[in-house]
Amino acid sequence: MFAMTSPVASLIASLTLLQVSTIAIGNTQKLRVRRDSDPEFWGDLLVACRAGDERVMAAVRRQGKLLFCGEFAPEIPLSLPNDDLAVLSLHDQIGLPRQQRC
Fold it and tell me: 61-99 b/e with 16+ CB inside 10 Å = b?
Protein backbone atom coordinates (compact mmCIF):
# COMPACT_ATOMS: atom_id res chain seq x y z
CA MET A 1 0.00 0.00 0.00
CA PHE A 2 2.67 2.52 0.96
CA ALA A 3 5.04 3.50 -1.82
CA MET A 4 3.38 0.93 -4.07
CA THR A 5 3.92 1.90 -7.69
CA SER A 6 1.49 0.97 -10.43
CA PRO A 7 3.76 -1.84 -11.71
CA VAL A 8 3.93 -3.34 -8.21
CA ALA A 9 0.16 -3.07 -7.83
CA SER A 10 -0.27 -4.73 -11.24
CA LEU A 11 2.10 -7.53 -10.25
CA ILE A 12 0.22 -8.15 -7.00
CA ALA A 13 -3.11 -8.07 -8.84
CA SER A 14 -1.82 -10.70 -11.28
CA LEU A 15 -0.88 -13.18 -8.54
CA THR A 16 -3.03 -16.20 -7.90
CA LEU A 17 -4.27 -16.95 -4.39
CA LEU A 18 -1.79 -19.84 -4.23
CA GLN A 19 1.09 -17.50 -5.09
CA VAL A 20 -0.01 -14.96 -2.47
CA SER A 21 -0.36 -17.76 0.09
CA THR A 22 3.12 -19.10 -0.72
CA ILE A 23 4.67 -15.65 -0.32
CA ALA A 24 2.80 -15.06 2.95
CA ILE A 25 3.77 -18.43 4.43
CA GLY A 26 7.42 -17.79 3.61
CA ASN A 27 7.37 -14.34 5.23
CA THR A 28 5.03 -14.61 8.21
CA GLN A 29 7.41 -12.75 10.52
CA LYS A 30 7.22 -9.69 8.25
CA LEU A 31 3.47 -9.62 7.68
CA ARG A 32 0.77 -7.76 9.54
CA VAL A 33 -2.71 -7.40 8.14
CA ARG A 34 -3.97 -3.87 8.54
CA ARG A 35 -7.63 -3.01 8.29
CA ASP A 36 -8.51 -6.69 8.68
CA SER A 37 -11.98 -5.75 9.90
CA ASP A 38 -12.65 -3.34 7.02
CA PRO A 39 -13.91 -5.37 4.01
CA GLU A 40 -14.95 -2.20 2.17
CA PHE A 41 -11.34 -0.96 2.11
CA TRP A 42 -10.04 -4.30 0.83
CA GLY A 43 -12.75 -4.48 -1.82
CA ASP A 44 -11.85 -0.99 -3.01
CA LEU A 45 -8.17 -1.94 -3.12
CA LEU A 46 -8.78 -5.09 -5.17
CA VAL A 47 -11.08 -3.28 -7.60
CA ALA A 48 -8.52 -0.48 -8.01
CA CYS A 49 -5.70 -2.94 -8.69
CA ARG A 50 -7.73 -4.78 -11.30
CA ALA A 51 -9.00 -1.59 -12.96
CA GLY A 52 -5.55 -0.35 -13.89
CA ASP A 53 -6.67 3.27 -13.43
CA GLU A 54 -3.95 5.31 -11.74
CA ARG A 55 -6.46 7.89 -10.46
CA VAL A 56 -8.48 5.20 -8.70
CA MET A 57 -5.31 3.60 -7.31
CA ALA A 58 -4.10 7.00 -6.04
CA ALA A 59 -7.41 7.52 -4.24
CA VAL A 60 -7.15 4.11 -2.53
CA ARG A 61 -3.52 4.80 -1.59
CA ARG A 62 -4.57 8.11 -0.07
CA GLN A 63 -7.35 6.40 1.89
CA GLY A 64 -4.89 3.78 3.12
CA LYS A 65 -2.50 6.48 4.30
CA LEU A 66 -5.27 8.27 6.17
CA LEU A 67 -6.35 5.04 7.85
CA PHE A 68 -2.73 4.21 8.72
CA CYS A 69 -2.08 7.66 10.21
CA GLY A 70 -5.35 7.46 12.10
CA GLU A 71 -3.97 4.50 14.02
CA PHE A 72 -1.49 6.86 15.70
CA ALA A 73 -3.89 9.70 16.53
CA PRO A 74 -4.67 10.06 20.22
CA GLU A 75 -8.16 9.08 21.27
CA ILE A 76 -10.26 11.97 22.51
CA PRO A 77 -13.39 11.07 24.49
CA LEU A 78 -16.69 11.98 22.86
CA SER A 79 -18.17 13.26 26.11
CA LEU A 80 -16.24 15.37 28.57
CA PRO A 81 -16.28 14.52 32.25
CA ASN A 82 -17.93 16.99 34.65
CA ASP A 83 -14.77 17.45 36.68
CA ASP A 84 -13.20 20.83 35.77
CA LEU A 85 -9.67 19.48 36.27
CA ALA A 86 -10.32 16.62 33.86
CA VAL A 87 -11.65 19.10 31.28
CA LEU A 88 -8.55 21.28 31.64
CA SER A 89 -6.36 18.20 31.32
CA LEU A 90 -8.17 17.24 28.13
CA HIS A 91 -7.60 20.74 26.76
CA ASP A 92 -3.90 20.36 27.53
CA GLN A 93 -3.83 17.04 25.68
CA ILE A 94 -5.35 18.48 22.52
CA GLY A 95 -3.27 21.65 22.72
CA LEU A 96 -5.88 24.39 23.10
CA PRO A 97 -4.45 27.76 24.15
CA ARG A 98 -5.38 29.03 27.64
CA GLN A 99 -7.82 31.68 26.39
CA GLN A 100 -9.96 29.00 24.68
CA ARG A 101 -10.30 26.82 27.76
CA CYS A 102 -13.63 26.34 29.51
Answer: bebbeeeeeeeeeeeeeeeeeeeeeeeeebbeeeeeeee
